[in-house]
Design goal:
It contains 8 helices and 10 strands. It is an alpha/beta fold and 232 residues long. It has 2 domains: 107 residues, Tetrapyrrole methylase, N-terminal domain (Cobalt-precorrin-4 Transmethylase, domain 1, 3-Layer(aba) Sandwich); 112 residues, Methyltransferase, Cobalt-precorrin-4 Transmethylase, Domain 2, CATH 3.30.950.10. A hairpin with a 7-residue loop joins strand 8 and strand 9. The strands form 2 sheets. It has a 5-stranded parallel beta sheet with strand order 3-2-4-1-5, sandwiched between helices. Strands 6-7-10-8-9 form a 5-stranded mixed beta sheet. The radius of gyration is 20 Å and the shape is elongated.
């Protein structure tokens, strides 16, 4: 008799406010035999908040070569595993997709538990067109940065970036020079107490962040080169 493998659950968790989690996510995290988390110390806060007491291991970019075989072996033993990131949906600008691919290759069932995502939360709060959008993640900090932006300058879509506070000013400068002074929105610390949404043009946002040091997690949204979408 062939032994059935477990299921790999890709579980979305809050991006800030701990109440932004689905019933199904809580039930799944409470039921699996193992949770793989990007940062176990950070994830314990969420798990403790909901009284979830399950074995927890770390899974992040730099330990994936050893962790993926361990997790696949666990799944092949017929045990379910949930993977979570520090915040939001795993696999978006983090290495969870590599674990997902390994599970698919091993013919293991993968199931997603949808929920919060900073990409979509930022986009829908921005007021910029959402009929077509392009998520670019983080720009390269150095090499290849301007090449990436040059490839986007003729893109007829809303463009979404993740950015760190210390690089936001430089990114706005580069976007203004290469892509142009388009409508733009900076969303900061979404769903948290210090949430801030700043709308304007790239040049207006650059002026703002030059006077107000940005902090926290940032989603930067750049609008299409369309005069009808500029903020009045």
């Amino acid at each position: 008799m062939t032994k059935l493998s477990g299921t790999l659950y890709i579980v979305s968790t809050p991006i800030g406010n701990l109440q932004d989690i689905t019933y199904r996510a809580v039930e799944t995290l409470s039921a699996v035999s193992l949770i793989a988390a990007e940062d176990t110390r950070h994830s314990k806060k969420l798990l403790n908040h909901y009284g979830i007491k399950r074995p927890l291991i770390s899974y992040y970019e730099y330990n994936r070569f050893t962790r993926i075989p361990q997790i696949i072996a666990h799944l092949n033993d017929g045990k379910d595993v949930a993977v979570i990131s520090d915040a939001g949906t795993p696999g978006i600008s983090d290495p969870a997709y590599k674990l997902t691919r390994a599970a698919i290759t091993a013919d293991i069932k993968v199931e997603t538990i949808p929920g919060p995502s900073a990409v979509l939360a930022g986009l829908i709060a921005s007021g910029l067109p959402s009929d077509r959008f392009l998520f670019e993640g983080f720009l390269p900090p150095k090499k290849g940065r301007k090449k990436r932006l040059n490839a986007l300058k003729d893109e007829q879509a809303t463009i979404i970036f993740y950015e760190s506070p210390r690089r936001l000013k430089r990114t706005l400068q580069d976007i203004g020079e290469i892509i142009g002074d388009r409508p733009a929105v900076v969303t900061r610390e979404l769903t948290k107490m210090n949430e801030e949404i700043i709308r304007g043009t790239v040049s207006e946002l650059l002026s703002y962040v030059s006077k107000h040091e940005p902090r926290g997690e940032i989603v930067l949204i750049i609008g299409k080169p369309d005069p009808n979408v500029f903020f009045k």
